[in-house]
Amino acid sequence: xxILIIEDESLVAESLIKLVKQLEPSATILGPLSEVKQxxxxxxxxxxxxxxxxDIQLADGISLxxxxxxxxxxxIIFTTAYNEYAIRAFKVNSIDYLLKPVDKAELGAAxxxxxxxxxxxDDAGYLREIKDLFVNFNSPKPFKERFAVHIGRSVxxxxxxxxxxxxxxELIFLIDHEGTRFITDYRSLDEVEELVNSKVFYRAxxxxxxxxxxxxxxxxxxxxxxxxxxxxxxxxDLIISKEKAADFKKWFDQ
Length: 254
Fold this sequence. Notes:
InterPro entries: CheY-like_superfamily, LytTR_DNA-bd_dom, Sig_transdc_resp-reg_receiver, WalR-like. This protein is an alpha/beta fold.
């Protein structure tokens, strides 16, 4: 099996290659490729691999631009800190995504899924659906302007501009601009991510989805991790992993 890796962060790429070698020792690893332009040329010069592991946001654009101009004949597993349309669409179509930092068990499950469904990837109708998803990726979609939350037995609405962050514990909580915690009806942060604008909301980790206007500052440490300080609200330290630090900085300063 030939696996192509598309990833612009060298440390993340090295970590991913190490995991792939552990989980699929017989696979031939291609890449990593780090730019849209570089990857387009690679596809022009090489036969398509059996599987692609790809980040969405690359140094010079989004990886979907690579595939939009090519007839795709292989599946993709996204390894990304971004969500938007791709995560929802590719979940529906049984192509997986892994949130950074990539977990070995989750990557292993994605490989099992790939092996079980290899025959589907040869289906022409399925490939047409994938092509349509690429074409429609950049189509604008509305984001929620307010979220329903519970106060006792009552339900009220919190405008997006008053949301400091979403927090996953036993339930999904919304924390507003005053630091008040409200219960929501959402089952996961993935579900919430699809409803908000990724330009101003960031998935800091598996427990926190944070709103840009409420990030006061961040500081790094000797391990490469970042600690965020939130504005006007009291929260536990919000940690950005070393693997996601460069991605966060790019998002924060865009």
